[in-house]
Amino acid sequence: MEKEVRTISLFSGAGGLDTGAIKAGASIIWANDMMKEACDTYRKNIGTHIEQGDINTKIDKLKGLGEVDLVIGGPPCQGFSVAGKMDTNDPRSQLIWSYVRVIEAVRPQAFVMENVKALATFEKWAMVRKRLLHSLRTLGYMVNLMVLNASDYDVPQARERVFVIGFKGAKCNIPDIEKMIRPYAHKASTVRETLSILDRAGEGNNRGTCKAKITLAEHPILRKSPYAGMIFNGLGRPTKIDGYSATLPASMGGNKTPIIDEHELYEGEEPWVKGYHEKIMRDPDVAKFAPAPPFLRRLTVQEAALLQTFPLNYEFCGSQSAQYTQIGNAVPCNLGKAVVSMVIDVLKKKRQMAYVYETQTVINFD
User: Fold this and answer.
1) Active site residue 210
2) C-alpha–C-alpha distance, residues 258 and 251, integer Å
3) Catalytic one among 39, 77, 210, 317?
4) Is residue 364 domain-resident?
5) In this structure, are 17 and 144 located in the same domain?
6) Which domain holds residue 156?
7) Could you read off the pLDDT of 209-259 as tens digits, one per residue?
8) Could you tell me if 339 and 163 are in contact, meaning their C-beta atoms sit under 8 angstroms apart?
9) Four-residue CA torsion sign, 163, 169, 170, 173
10) I need a surface site. Which of 1, 97, 116, 352 has the fewest CB within 10 A?
11) Cα separation of 210 and 324, whole Å?
């Protein structure tokens, strides 16, 4: 019998990354999150091994769990996100160091940390990146980071995230994780294809409708694409039915919830927003007199969950607002499956490690 991959999950939320990790072969022995509703959702769908509370108060307990092969988790990212204030002093920015403390305490064979793209690419966070990589390498791990687009890994969402991945080994060996992940790529289905298993909004298996009103901006901010800029009041943007959704935010539930064109989705008509965009590009004053058509609505809870690749029968707990938050905060299940599959295959020697650098001389990779 093949040895189980004993896994600890941090900042587990509703279980998006964990659902993917389990499909990849991980055996999750302990999980943790601060949000009560997310823990309730996790217990309902995955298991009772999740504990609610501050991870910083539970690290000593983790040392008693025995051998740990893998640690996974996405520390809250609002402190680094361009959707937030990008505040260096945001307490949520400090939770990546809690993750590092867990790695130091349990010494797994490998780890996977997920976060927003900005942590990997913004100059503002350059020193944080350097300190993070240095801290993990000092603990005895071969570490690298990569930015992935979820749509390349069977998720119908153009959601970019950074993954910091480490394996026990010489700290000056830099794994080529971008090369190692390529065989696990799988182009996603479109939004239309993904939502085709649902009933119409408000009916049957698609009842979690959002009541936030849709209004057109009197002074729209225009871009070349009708799916960019600010055509509507609020941050909810129109969804590309025959393409991929924009990133689903945790702030869904009100006027930040993405917009669906029912005539396009159900009747196969041309996207209304394209024609409207052409008109206001020619004459912006048109926007002052245009009401939003009634066939535009917000994404439902069930649609949002499918776009995050949660199973259709996944049950979310708490208020509808809390459910939207859990879905938006999650790592898409299929993206998690791809990344964790790669890591487990390396641990089980089913796939060879590749290196950017493999040397006994310290490389100033940062």
Assistant:
1) no
2) 11
3) 77
4) no
5) yes
6) 5-187+330-357
7) 999 999 999 999 999 999 999 999 998 999 999 999 999 999 999 999 999
8) yes
9) negative
10) 1
11) 10
